[in-house]
Amino acid sequence: MQAMDIANDALDKVLGNIKAALQISIPILLLILIIVAAISFPFWQAVYSGSDSGARAFMSAPMGMARAVVIPVILIVIGLYWVTVAWHRFVILDEKPAGILPKLHLGCIWGYIWRLFVLSFVIGIVIGIPLAILSNIVGGGGQINIADYSEALQAGPVAVIFNMVGTAVFAYAFMRYSPFLVAAAVGAPIRAATGRESTYWAKNAIFQLAVGYALMSLVSTFIGGGLSTGFWLVDLAIVLALQWVAFMFTISLLTTLYQKSVANYSDNEETDRIMT
């Protein structure tokens, strides 16, 4: 299966199950947004309208920082990975929501978030630090922001190149290990090394996908800067819609890699066991 085959399969998972994708994700995201809005709406309204005094007043109030940043971030993380786990389980286990909201598998969600943190941290240390040092030596500024080129574009072409390399390498390593995450979501945890070994068959396709991701993230930086209607609520709705599409496609891509990789790896292990 080549890169386009994997990408098309992931896209088909979303488009072919668009009703389920909306039923699984939208109620959770709306619930989180309602709670976050109730907690910190005055602050974000001030931010989007450019009222520095309003934002500062909210932040200086008791629990202002927690209401403006800390609690919303925690809720958004929980919401996103609730959707992620529910979607993985729907596609792989055919687990459908029994009510308005999908089942909250807290153990699986925590396992997913913890593995994601560890994986991202290790990749960042192994890849990010050497690249940042090299970038600083050759005049790239020494800062690598994965999939975010806004600062690199201001720093110059060398910084953009290093940002692109860092994004592609990070994406490649992340996808190679991604079955390690998805397995936790479906309650069948595997070792990180097993996740990497299981995707060996698709290493060339994953490299192509990683390079494509680095290029698309650069393009989205240019496009994102020009998306403005002048109405902050409309702008927010457009951004959220685009992020939903990208988010559902991404987790579907990880689902596809898990299904193809772990199944093939398990079959090969069983064949080797029988042969020996």
- What portion of residues is helical? over 70%
Name the beta content range: under 5%
The pLDDT mean sits at 84
Indicate how many domains the architecture comprises: 1
N- and C-termini, Cα separation = 28 Å
Which secondary-structure class do the elements indicate? mainly alpha
Tell me about the largest β-sheet: none
Q: pLDDT under 50 segments (min length 5)?
A: 270-276
Radius of gyration: 21 Å
- The total of helices stands at 11
Overall outline:
globular
Number of strands: 0
Please tell me about this protein's structure.
With 276 residues, the protein is an all-alpha fold. The protein has one domain (3-271). It is built from eleven helices and no strands. The longest helix is centred in the last third of the chain and has 44 residues, at 232-275. The radius of gyration is 21 Å and the shape is globular.
List the helices and strands and how they pair.
Elements: H1 3-15, H2 18-49, H3 52-60, H4 64-93, H5 106-137, H6 150-155, H7 157-177, H8 179-185, H9 192-198, H10 203-225, H11 232-275
Helix pairs in contact: 1-10, 1-11, 2-3, 2-4, 4-5, 4-11, 5-7, 5-8, 7-10, 8-11
